[in-house]
Design brief:
- With 82 residues, this protein is an alpha+beta fold.
- The chain has one domain (2-81): GIY-YIG endonuclease (3-Layer(aba) Sandwich), CATH 3.40.1440.10.
- 45% of the residues lie in helices and 28% in strands.
- The chain has four helices and three strands.
- A three-stranded antiparallel sheet has the order 2-1-3, with helices on both faces.
- A hairpin with a 4-residue loop joins strand 1 and strand 2.
- The longest helix has 12 residues, at 56-67.
- The protein is globular and about 25 Å long.
């Protein structure tokens, strides 16, 4: 499985990413040098949204779609998932 996820950073900004191991990636974002440059400066981060995909291709396409959205549309997606 592959995951598209949204993190809420300490500065309240949002980060969207893609991985095949969500737990490991969240740990990297919060505690490792392997975390994204963007999140390293905005720790701690919290997982607030995720979607599952069978293929990397579909996950990457969805990640790109969500990244293109304005913040308000991302927040709507998150709110509707609760």
């Amino acid at each position: 499985m592959h995951f598209v996820y949204i993190l809420k950073c300490a500065d309240k900004s949002l980060y969207t990413g893609c991985t095949n191991n969500l737990e490991k990636r969240l740990e990297e974002h919060n505690n490792s040098k392997k975390g994204a440059r963007y999140t390293k400066a905005r720790r701690p981060v919290k997982l607030i949204y995720q979607e599952r995909f069978r293929t990397l291709h579909r996950a990457r396409a969805r990640e790109a779609e969500i990244k293109s959205w304005p913040r308000e549309k991302k927040l709507d997606l998150i709110d509707k998932s609760k």
